[in-house]
Amino acid sequence: MPFQGGKSPDLAFSRVLFPPGRPDAGRYAFRPVVKEDLALLQVWLRTPEVIRWWGKPEEQAALLREDLDEPAMVMQIVSFDGKPFAYAQHYAVHTWPQAHFESLPPGSRAIDAFIGEPDMLGKGHGSVFLRLLAGQLRHEGAPVVAIDPDIQNHRARRAYKRAGFRGDTEVMTDSGPAALMIFEG
After folding, report:
1. Distances (CA, A) of 14 to 6, 20, 118, 164
2. Do residues 123 and 26 touch, judged by C-beta distance below 8 A?
3. pLDDT tens per residue across span 64-117
4. Who contacts 165 (Cβ-Cβ below 8 Å, separation ≥6)?
5. Residue 21 region, left (φ>0) first, then alpha (ψ -120 to 50), else beta?
6. Is the entire prediction scored with pTM above 0.90?
7. Bridge partners of 2?
8. DSSP string, 156-171
């Protein structure tokens, strides 16, 4: 079922969307960002890994504040065992036209995400929660789900591949060169 009003339902869903052998998939939950989460997001935006790939914390915090009132941007806090550790947002690719998404079919979604808790990096959490999210978006009707990490962000690109994203086409974005990766799961 496609998204209605730009918002997605709570994504604490079945393990069916994740391959067997990962029993911890049900330990992840997604919930909408609320105004009270902005302080936590600002802390995360100041971590070195997030600054490296997302840029100036003040600018990004201002964009997140603006997006809270934008129904076409679905903003989520990702938790593991009830502890928030990451941020994910997704949107219809043709809502904010970008040249590297032009050829994607109508209804396609794009994901942007980061892990805000440094102690959760490098442990496989990114690939798990992104596979869950992308699988849910496909289940809800998106023909494809795209993600476009910085071409130099090798850690993210490896995680996205483990999550089921394919392709490595270099594209130019407003932020610089990126790798266009597609999930058709």
Report:
1. 22, 12, 27, 18
2. no
3. 999 999 999 999 999 999 999 999 999 999 998 899 999 999 999 999 999 999
4. 130, 134, 145, 147, 181, 182, 183
5. left
6. no
7. none
8. HHHHHHHHT-EEEEEE
Taking only the tens place, the pLDDT of each residue in 41-59 is 999 999 999 999 999 999 9
What's the confidence (pLDDT) of residue 14? Answer: 33
Axis-axis angle for helices 38-45, 57-67 (nearest 10): 150
Cβ pair 147, 75 in contact under 8 A:
no
Cβ-contact 178, 100 below 8 angstroms: yes
Residue with tokens 């079922």: 1
The answer to whether 162 and 124 are in contact (CB under 8 A) is yes
Quote the tokens at residue 98: 């970008």
Lowest mean pLDDT among 16-20, 24-28, 118-122, 178-182: 16-20
Q: What 3-state DSSP class applies to 27?
A: helix
- Full set of structural domains in the chain with CATH: 27-183 (3.40.630.30)
